[in-house]
Amino acid sequence: MQPPPLMGEVELGPVGPLEPPEAPEVLVSRRPGGIRVLKRNMKRNGSRNCLNRRSRFGSRERDWLREDVKRGCVYLYGAETNTATTTATTSLSSDLHLVLCTVETPASEICAGEGRESLYLQLHGDLVRRLEPSERPLQMVYDYLSRLGFDDPVRIQEEATNPDLGCMIRFYGEKPCQMDHLDRILLSGIYNVRKGKTQLHKWAERLVVLCGTCLIVSSVKDCQTGKMHILPLVGGKVEEVKRRQYSLAFSSAGAQAQTCHVSFETLAECQRWQRQASKVVSQRISTVDLSCYSLEEVPEHLFYSQDITYLNLRHNFMQLERPGGLDSLYNLQILCLDGNFLTTLPEELGNLQQLCSLGISFNHFSQIPEVYVKLTTLEKVVMAGNRLEVLNLGVLNRMSHIKHVDLRMNRLKTVIIENLEGNKYITHMDLRDNKLTDLDLSSLCSLEQLHCERNQLRELTLSGFSLRTLYANSNRLTVVNVYPVPSLLTSLELSRNLLECVPDWACEAKKIEILDVSYNLLTEVSMRILSSLSLRKLMVGHNHVQNLPVLMEHIPLEVLDIQHNLLTRLPDTLFSKALNLRYLNASANRLESLPSACTGEESLSMLQLLYLTSNLLTDECIPVLVGHPHLRILHLANNQLQTFPASKLNKLEQLEELNLSGNKLKTIPTTIANCKRLHTLVAHSNNINIFPEILQLPQIQFVDLSCNDLTEILIPEALPATLQDLDLTGNTNLVLEHKTLDIFSHITTLKIDQKPLPTTDSTVTSTFWSHGLAEMAGQRNKLCISALAVDNFAEGVGAVYGMFDGDRNEELPRLLQCTMADVLLEEVQQSTNDTVFMTNTFLVSHRKLGMAGQKLGSSALLCYIRPDTADPMSSFSLTVANVGTCQAVLCRSGKPVSLSRVFSLEQDPEEAQRVKDQKAIITEDNKVNGVTCCTRMLGCTYLYPWILPQPHISSTPLTIQDELLILGNKALWEHLSYTEAVNAVHHVQDPLTAAKKLCTLAQSYGCQDNVGAMVVYLNIGEEGCTCEVNGLTLPGPVGFVSTIKDHPKPTTPSSSSGIASEFSSEMSTSEVSSEVGSTASDEHNTVGLDTGLLPRPERRCSLHPTPTSGVFQRQPSCATFSSNQSDNGLDSDDDQPVEGVITNGSKVEVEVDIHCCRGRDLENSPTFIESSPTLCPEEHARGLFFGIRRQNSVNSGILLPVSKDKMELQKSPSTSCLYGKKLSNGSIVPLEDSLNLIEVATEAPKKKTGYFAAPTQLEPEDQFVVPRDLEEEVKEQMKQHQESRPEHEPSEQDRTEVPEEFDTAL
């Protein structure tokens, strides 16, 4: 469709360059075929390889797009040096063409208008391919956005016009030259070239490049457009041309060899080319990689050598109905056909007798191909991710050369045994992630290793003749039969099943070294298991074991995990008989004491790691620890310790990590200075009041003393250079001097409580929620977790909390921490549907990651609390969205409620099937292309469409039964169940202490990775209301001090969450308070002055928010007025002083906003009428109503009248964005009211009797007070006014319409 002409365009004759007013640098040209091109010369944004704001077109182009959602624009980039691994600052600037077109416009039409031969498509800064003439670029962009998750056509059109999209999908008018291609260029230059062996061809000047193993010849003009002649040199020859000086003849190999003559200018140049080309010619290619080339068949004339041994055709569109030349590669040894659309294999492949590896995973096979019978050199059948539903063991019996069978992620339901003949050849079988319910492989008498995890197995039967390792985790096993007793068995893993006892045959296995039966229903551990002379690692955690047998003989056990059982004591001879024991985890039991490690004068214990968290241990267990002199890691968190004797700690000289959090300690012994190897001390949530002497330790790195009673810190002159993290949050009485802060300045992370800000109305909302955050790096040297916490979000009526886990990268979590709240605020203004604005928030954040999101990815979790408009019975609603493995759990009536979905291959079969259907390669460690186990993330755009950014969204209304919300990353929920996490923090008073406790528990339960937890305490209920109707009143404006009823103080302020970085999101510039002046005429003030009270509504909390749609939202004004008063306090226009105002006659300066608004009928604000004093009849007649609003808050006030029309206009989500602008602090203010408030006021009609009646900024000596003898009288008058208010609103007949009236302060 032809776009409408711009102003100044000439319809007749040639179209010349135009300069629209909005963008003078734009050149508009009319092209044939109904498209329009905007050419721009623009700079690159060096940080993200995307265009800056100057790339956006003007309003006329946007108007043309809005007429039809099928219209759009395509950014057409010029040729440039581009690579995904280099920064954008090294790329060359180029012209950008902005093409306006429709979804029906083909690439050929754009090429004709641009004078190009073809267009090129690049996805995610990776591979580039040429577009077919019939392909439609704009439709491709729309389809791409639709698959990402956008579903609104208008929003898709808007996103397509954003230049940042170029980091994900980009079109080129010329083929870009990749940096890796330039690295392969050996020689290049412009020379005279003649093609062919005869002299009939003429010499012509051409660009000649020796690149890799090819000679590339192209015209100088079209060298970058794809017009080139490629001559493969491998197996060919290079000869001197005798009839022409300084010339070489390059010839390819094969029956149809081609020759190219090149003439050089000097002898040295000719010799250099000859030496280099001779090396290329003598090469023998053994490896060919044609993966991801969109091939439908193997090119028959691609290879000129028979030396190819490795051929990779992965991720193509091949069907191989015929061999396509593969049968001629007799020396081929490895053939990879993974990720294609194969259903059969041609019989000709059986001629490849040297083929030893054939990969056909993630295709469409429904049975094992018969060609395997002929390929006798193969040892493996690799068919993971296909469509097999039945496994016929008889087929495998005919393949005596097959030893390994990989059938992961198929659809297997049954296994068929044709006859009783056993298979003596298969040694390894992998059946993970299928749908098997019963498995009998007793006929595989040579089976050594079996993987059958994540099926639905109830019974398993195997042959034990050769069995060495068995992995059957995450099933429903109640019976495991192995016959005969596996004498060679070394490793047995049966965790996460329904076993009630360890199988007898496992107790009799003589060589078993590893036994994992955790997460079952065991009630006891057999003496035969514990006393095994071969067992080195025993995992019995998360069962119901009540006691362990007493050891009578020495055992070689090295690792014992018995956490989460019902143990009250450990065997008395455990440490004396298990002398090789190095790791013991007995956390989450009921231990009250520990067995002694010393049987004589000297201890022989070799114990190095001891975890005893969450038991009932007291100070009596401390002397026993001295018997383990080799202890490196000691966890005694959440016990009942009150003291730690200094003499005992002095003997633990090898200690490297000490965790004493969650006890009742008052001090840390000074002898801790003798632990020279100590690098981690965690002692939060105690009663410590003296800072321990740890800053003298030479290797100290991490110190956590949060949530204690510290008051001061005595520090040395120089801190250890190794100290990286110091956490002092939650010490409410701790005061750090500037000198101390300067000394701590070199610490990478210093966490301290922020000073509280002056009390404002926005802080009232924090009584409904407060949060605490804990992050621990574990045994990794960097923290790849970031959190977002905004207790007062969107003008203080909501809150936003988020958790971002980058796994191995820290860049993306920090980027999301800084940007995601702003994106959410913008999306909330455009839509009130929680699914829409949450989805768009994630998708836009995904786009904003730019180049950083091409190769890196991050899990993301976002929780948004807002007033609930849909459910009148609920005050707030909670909307949770997540991608990846971060999760949120709500505690409702003491029970956990999961609000998230885990997007991983192991835990989400639906997502795993989607990834399989889209031909992704899932490696044996269950990772997409070997990169990540997540199927939905923000970032990792190069793994599209397998990994998507579309989130899972859930919404729930918050009620009084909702107590707290827990946000955690993958590592937290891997080691803590939902129920255990809720029970652990259910009765903890402080959210920071609760978050710390969760992280400590995860580490004590075996977590060695980054772990993060955020706990949000909820107080949703009428008892948490802070409205004036519930007892909280404000100081009156007429010279008396009101009594303020104290509201519940949060145990920990939101500022003490532990976030100590430049990415703090808790403070906003919108929280700056200012004195606000009321504007009223002399008529309106008469009532208030006569009665001693001004009409003012009560303060409202977030539970009962003031209707905001019709109230002017103030922003700070720059205008400061000096009231024109004489020394006696009289206004210059008045003859009498203001009644009821007591002043000392000083000059008053106030900061105010000047504004004008219309009156509003009383019916529009019934809530205010109930709490306002009685209005005079004159005010009833005018229908005026004044609402108090304070700066940047929903619950606060300026006194102003409000227009009903304006209120209705602002209720619309679209108009809220249309008539408002976004400030740097994220707040929204009506646009027409924020431009120049003073000018608006000067244009309003003025009354000669008007005067300025704003309250002054009080000095200490100027405070308005009520004498003690008049307090009761004033309170009685206030009570009478409240009782005398009208019981019902006036009817419509009582209200009279009056002309518009404006009041001003001038």
TrEMBL record:
Low complexity: bias regions: 1054-1080
Q: Does the keyword Cell division apply?
A: no
Q: Which SMART domains match?
A: LRR_BAC (SM00364), LRR_TYP (SM00369), PP2Cc (SM00332)
Which GO CC annotations does the UniProt entry carry? Answer: cytoplasm
Protein name, as recorded: PH domain leucine-rich repeat-containing protein phosphatase 2 isoform X2
Q: Which reactions fall under this protein's catalytic activity?
A: O-phospho-L-seryl-[protein] + H2O = L-seryl-[protein] + phosphate
List where this protein forms a coiled coil.
none
